[in-house]
Each structure stands twice: as C-alpha cells, then as structure tokens.
C-alpha cells in the first residue's frame, strides 16, 4: 500500500510540471513582449502561449498506442527528458523562433504526462485506494501552478525581472522528475502481464503491495487481459519453486491455485452446462454457449486438471515451511 502511494505521488510530478508551466508563461509573457518587441503582434503572443497546447494535442493522438507497445515507464521517462530539454531551450531562447520550439517541446512533455500518469497510477494502485490515488494528478497540477505563481511574483519584485530565468527554472524540478522516473518508478504490472512477462509483473506487484502473496491479483490481471494466448492459467498463478525452498512452496501454491480454480470450474459448470430452465409455460432452453465461452471453459477445465495433478505430486524435499514452523 505504502509503496503504491509513493509510486503514484512520484509519477504525478509530471502533472505538477504541467501546472508549473501553465503559470510560468502567464507571468512571463509581459516581459517577453517587451524584450522581443511584440506589442503590436497579438497573434504571435497568442501563438507563444498556444504552442504548448498544440504540441500536447499532437502527441496525445499516438501516445496511447505507443505506450501499449513500449510500456508506460519508458514514456514517462521520455516526458521527463522532454521537460528538461524544454526548460534548457527556454533558458537560452535567443530568438522568438527558439522560444516557439521550446514551447512545442514542452507541449510534447505535457501531453505525455497528462495522458499517461493517470493510466499509470490506475494500473499500479491497489483497488481499495485506486480512486483516492487517481486524484493525485489534479492535486499536483494545482500545486505546481500555485508554486509557480508564487515564484513569478517574487521574481517580479526584482529591479529587472528576467523572463528566461522564470521559464528556465523548470529545469530544476524536471531533473528531479528524470531521476524519479529512471531510478524509482517500476513498469506497470498490468502492462507486463499483457505482454506475457509474468515473472516481472509478480516482482513489481510484490514491491508495490509490500507482501509476497500476490497470486490472486496476478490471476485477476491475467484473466481480465486474456494474457498469454494459449498459455495455461497455471503458468501465471503458480510461480517456479525457488531453489532453496525445495519445491514445497511450489506445492503449496499448487494447492491454493487448485482450490481457486476448482471453485471457478464449479461456478462455470453451474452457470453453463448444468443450467436448468425455469419452470412454467414460458420456459426456454438454456442458451448455447458461444464458441469463445466454450473455449474458455475448456481452458479452465484443462488448467484445473493440470493444477490438480501438480498439487498431488509428492514433495521430494521434506517438510514444507509451514510444517517446520509448526514443529517449533
């Protein structure tokens, strides 16, 4: 729980930088007009503000499919790097053209952040606090806007305010965001499951949840995504036995998973094959399952059979961990 909250807060830094940027351009535009002599060019002034939104709109058209292909974390890393590059360009900006380019790059960073941070948080947060953590992007965005307005106001009190410094300060929080995305944020477990990378997803879930037993959530993710194509369900519910555990933990997981699948199998049979029509003159024959439902039922039956056989295998390495603890 605590790990998921910290990860969500760290990811939401991208939205804080969006709010920071929106407030900075509003406060520095007065000095940009004076420095570049744009008083008689309202269209160019508006373009300086709108270029960021144009960039964000352009990149959001393909950020979703691209993140499905390469992952959520690489896209967040790209967003943090684009924020840093935009801040450096705005800090330099010798001409209006360079400033427009900086604003466009900044818009790319904003577009990636506002589209992917909520998705990333929803895929890493536990169900019981998912709604709460999903409010963090809006909270951090408003916080960034407030802090930026305070900074701009303080800078305007100087004898000669420098708009390049106002906008270039974005580099500092952007570097923090780069460090967070590169060294702290894990990949989304849901995305890992969708790509069949079950072992990595299990490791990430254990880190996020702060516990070892995440097989139930792994099963739900895999079931919801239809992960692995023809991969048997036991491959993502039952993990390989660690070498130092002697296989007894593998057998324990086999018993647990077999019990879970047995309940699912009985429920599927009760809902499908053995369903009886209601009594009365308006009784109708039970609905014939579709080809997809029949295939899913066969997969469940096969998985249950395989897991049941696995759970009944004799353990070769002595007592299990629970039995050793009971003997003490």
Automatic annotation (TrEMBL):
Q: Domain Major facilitator superfamily (MFS) profile spans what residues?
A: 7-328
Compositionally biased, Basic residues: which spans? Answer: 284-303
Q: Name one GO molecular function term.
A: transmembrane transporter activity
| Topology class, membrane | Multi-pass membrane protein
Q: Pfam families, from UniProt?
A: Sugar_tr
Q: Please give the residue ranges the record annotates as the region Disordered.
A: 258-328
User: What compartments host this protein?
Assistant: Membrane
Example GO CC term: the record gives:
membrane
Source domain of life: Eukaryota
Q: What is its main location?
A: membrane
UniProt keywords (A-Z) are: Membrane, Transmembrane, Transmembrane helix, Transport
Q: Where are the transmembrane segments?
A: 43-62, 74-92, 163-185
Q: Which family does it belong to?
A: Belongs to the major facilitator superfamily. Sugar transporter (TC 2.A.1.1) family.
Record-given protein name: Major facilitator superfamily (MFS) profile domain-containing protein
